[in-house]
Amino acid sequence: MKTIINGRLILPEKICAGALNFDEKIISIGEPVSGAEVIDAENNFVSAGFINIHIHGAAGVDTMDEDIGALKKLAEFLPSTGVTSFLPTTMTMPLEKIYRALERIRLGKNFTSGAKILGAHVEGPFISKKFKGAQAEENILSANFELFRNFFDVIKIMTVAPEVLNFSHLPLPFSLSIGHSAATYEEAMTAIERGANHITHLFNAQTGFHHRKPGIVGAALDSSAIVELIADNVHVHPAAQRLVAKIKPRNEIILITDSLRACGLGDGVSELGGQKVFVKGNLATLEDGTIAGSVATMNDVLKIFCANTSTDIAAGVEMVTKNPAVELGIFDKTGSLEVGKSADITIFDDDLNIKKTFVNGQRNF
Ligand SMILES: [Zn+2]
Q1: Rounded distance, CA 176 to CA 160, Å?
Q2: Nearest Cα to 262, choosing from 122, 88, 62, 123?
Q3: Which among 232, 258, 300, 344 is annotated as catalytic?
Q4: How far is the CA of 258 from the centre of ligand 1 (A)?
Q5: Structure confidence by residue, pLDDT tens digits, 337-361
């Protein structure tokens, strides 16, 4: 048994002092259990571990790398950013390559160290050529979910362009997320009503807001769809982040990183989906200047979003813990500090520097 003392515990309804006692699961909250291994939080925040539902890579590795060691390295890097579980995210690449990535992700669910792999976010290949973003056009396919039938157990979210679907396959055993799409407001609203109640990286690679053509952004803001937000100030301007915070209820916002292998490596030349990526500061671009994924971490995006929107830390934490857990249907197991849930815990200071991270009660950072 372990006990965290001297922490500011971010609990579902309040921030309070008290001890957090756990082994693999959270045992009790209140008084420290005698005889337990003591961890001094040194007056830092103690929250549920962060969950990243959209991440391609970091620390020099990418989900598409043909090496299970790469996925393991990614899992082992993420606790240093406060992340205790995640969805490795595939790119629009040749189908066989996506299949092999999904096979590795399935195996990765059994890793015994690092952040937990919950399944996959499959980004494409059923997307719009017009809004491909950093996805390679030659690998975009017509929508046919049967192509992924063998991986329905591992896929948790699939990003699709709803204008290329006929929805005859619904319901599917995973969330459909609208993204890389040229859908009109009307097409997006229809898709949301039919169950595609999630928007991939809101504002990026989709039809924007115009007062006579509200687009996907208009549909996202005018419905109860859950929106992913890359709150790194590169992909989404601080003012746009504020507008989302004003319009959307807190439980409809999930912060993500969409990060690349270059995340955590500093400036230089990197790679995404077989294309060269140039990184300078917070900005990662393809050769033609298209913004590729990000180099932000989850503690970065949480800090930036809270600062831009004057969101208090407890509310911000929900956007990286509770909301993704609810979306994935695992909020009964993780996503908040409550007795009986997995001891997925992160300790961080007022500047969102991660101090310690526990996954299933095991120290991972
Ligand atoms: Zn992505």
Answers
A1: 7
A2: 62
A3: 258
A4: 5
A5: 999 999 999 999 999 999 999 999 9
pTM: 0.97
> Which tokens go with 358?
């526990």
Domains of the chain: 50-333 (3.20.20.140)
Q: Which helix (H) or strand (E) holds 240?
A: helix 238-247
Torsion over CA: 214, 217, 219, 223 (sign) = negative
Query: How much distance in Å is there from the Cα of 220 to the middle of ligand 1?
Result: 18
- Active-site residue, 351 included: no
Express each pLDDT in 100-111 by its tens digit: 999 999 999 999
294: its two tokens: 């990000």
Q: Which residues pair with 116 in a beta bridge?
A: 85
Report cis status (omega within 30 of 0) of the bond before 171.
yes
Distance 13 CA to ligand 1 centre (A): 32
**Cβ distance 38 to 51 under 8 Å?**
no
Cα of 348 to ligand 1 centre, how many Å?
26
- CA distances in angstroms from 40 to 49, 276, 363, listed in the order given: 17, 44, 13
φ, ψ for residue 300, nearest 5 deg: -60, -55
Distance between CA atoms of residues 144 and 19, nearest Å:
51
Task: State the Rg of the chain over Cα.
Answer: 20
Residues with CB under 5 A from ligand 1 (ion): 123, 258
Which of 80, 85, 78, 7 shows the shortest CA–CA distance to 46? 7
| Comparison of pLDDT for 87 and 170, the residue scoring more | 87
User: Which of the 8 DSSP states describes residue 80?
Assistant: G
- Beta strand 19-22 with 26-30 is antiparallel
Tell me how far the alpha carbon of residue 92 lies from the centroid of ligand 1, in angstroms: 10
* 26, 76, 310 from 50: Cα distances, Å: 16, 14, 20
Residue type, 330: I
Q: Is 257 exposed, middle or buried (0-12, 13-18, 19+ CB in 10 A)?
A: buried
Both tokens assigned to 241: 């982040």
- H/E segment holding residue 191: helix 185-193
Note the pLDDT of residue 274. 79
